[in-house]
Amino acid sequence: MNYLLNICSVKKLKKQKHTMTRITIAKGDGIGPEIMEATLNVIKAAGAQIEIDEIEVGEKVYLSGITSGIKDESWDIIRTNKVFLKAPITTPQGGGYKSLNVTTRKFLGLYANVRPCVSFHPFIATKHPKMDVVIVRENEEDLYAGIEHQQTDEVVQCLKLISRPGCEKIVRYAFEYAKQYGRKKVTCMTKDNIMKQTDGLFREVFTEIAKEYPEIENEHWIIDIGSAKLADTPEDFDVIVTLNLYGDVISDIAAQITGSVGLAGSSNIGEECAMFEAIHGSAPMIAGQGIANPTGLIEGAVLMLNHIGQSGVAQKVKNALLKTIEQGTHTADIYNPAISKKKVGTKEFSEAVIANLGTTPSTLKAVDFKNGAALKLPKYVRKASKNKSLLGVDAFVHWNGTDPNEIAKKLQELNSNGLPLKMITNRGIKVWPNGFQETFCTDHWRCRFQHPENKEVTKEDLITILKSALEKGIDIVKTENLYSFDGKQAYSLGQGQ
């Protein structure tokens, strides 16, 4: 009977006027082709009005000599269609291959990664039956800029880049998402007690934008205790917005504690384009066996359908998926003899979802996507420039000695043009003046030259220091200028300073 009702509902949908949306798909590697076929079968049966262009990405493309994992003509198709549904891919080990996911997010400006994490209790085992959290992760910046350098024999660095536009876009997206979907609270997570400039900017922007949404509760947690709280009592959270690395970690934690990381999908949203995917990997060890769980990619497709304005279809697919899980029709990864009724493969699971189209779950909460659609955020408007003053320089020196007093003596002999040596740190810890002999030092020394009265200096003053260091054989491997903006210090003190 359900099958006949489903046929009727699909015919009714076809009679209605819908605008066809052209999307790009990639079947990926490992289990990717299997779960993509299952997903497309489900959304087409539900009445999705889509036309498809398929591209190849991933392992075969990498191994053909294209180190990005994607051909130039494929980029053109994605940019033309602007909607990309992607199955998991395999990045070959070694060879310096870059993550295609990271590349895609950056090239297409996909600044927001959105991961809904909902438990399916009591049908999938979880310690958190009331969990319903959405992680909104900044997607382009932070340590994921991937800017790394080896500076000395013993020290490498990775630059953490945070911009005001990046902060404003992701924080505003989180509040607009909460507003559109009836969420009550947005929680910001940072480590601004340690990284006062970078994470401090993120929290500052969050505080500013939160004032524009007085109807939505807001709060801030330090990321370490916030993550512990999320793992312990996720029902206390609603929407969480955070920086790239933290978001990557806690979104996997959140997905796993719902019951399985294999059940979650995600969207990657930009001003022009969007990408949708499962959050799990390509699982090559089970590829071709027909046992993979397509739920994560189906969830990604649901997010895609909402984004392209086909929320009715998205709602139908999601409720059918919930009904199937509720009936105990489970793939091997979530099968539990004490709970499940039937163990099925990939194809059989998708067929069960199709058979349930037009129904709603009895125990699990049915979804209502009446407000679903792509969020329309205002363009970022650049603020007026601040008054920037140069106050000194941090010169990073490669030196193999171990006594800070010895290198300090060498640096004090430089012709510093009125900019004396003020401080030396090693791995951020002040070791001169008045350092502790117990502090272990590497061969990488941050040496701060600054006017004793904190007066403004010129770049010529900094050049004088560099020239003098060169003459005396002191190896400066990097410099960072010390600035104030509108009179506010814009650099960190040394730990212990």
Question: Which helices and strands, and how do they pair?
Answer:
Layout (H helix, E strand, L loop, with lengths): L1 H14 L5 E6 L5 H14 L4 E6 L3 H5 L8 H10 L1 E4 L13 H8 L4 E7 L13 E7 L9 E3 L5 E3 L5 H17 L4 E6 L7 H13 L6 E6 H10 L6 E4 L1 H15 L6 E5 L4 E5 L16 H13 L3 H16 L2 E2 L11 E2 L2 H10 L32 E11 L5 H9 L8 E6 L2 E4 L11 E7 L8 H13 L3 E11 L2 E2 L8
Helix pairs in contact: 2-10, 2-12, 6-7, 8-9, 10-11, 11-12
The amount of beta strand, in percent, is: 15-25%
Question: Which structural class matches the secondary elements?
Answer: alpha/beta
Query: Main β-sheet, in a few words?
Result: 10 strands, mixed
Specify Rg, calculated over alpha carbons: 27 Å
Instruction: Note the total helix count.
Output: 14
Separation, N- and C-terminal Cα atoms: 75 Å
Descriptive overview:
The chain is an alpha/beta fold and 497 residues long. Helix content is 34%, strand content 22%. The protein has 14 helices and 20 strands. The strands form 4 sheets. A 10-stranded mixed β-sheet has the order 2-1-3-12-11-4-5-10-8-9, sandwiched between helices. Strands 17-16-18-15-19-20 form a 6-stranded antiparallel β-sheet. Strands 6-7 form a two-stranded antiparallel ribbon. Helix 7 (198-210) links the parallel strand 8 (185-190) and strand 9. The longest helix is centred in the middle third of the chain and has 17 residues, at 164-180. The chain is elongated and about 80 Å long. It starts with a helix and ends in an 8-residue tail after the last strand. The model is unreliable at 1-17 (pLDDT under 50).
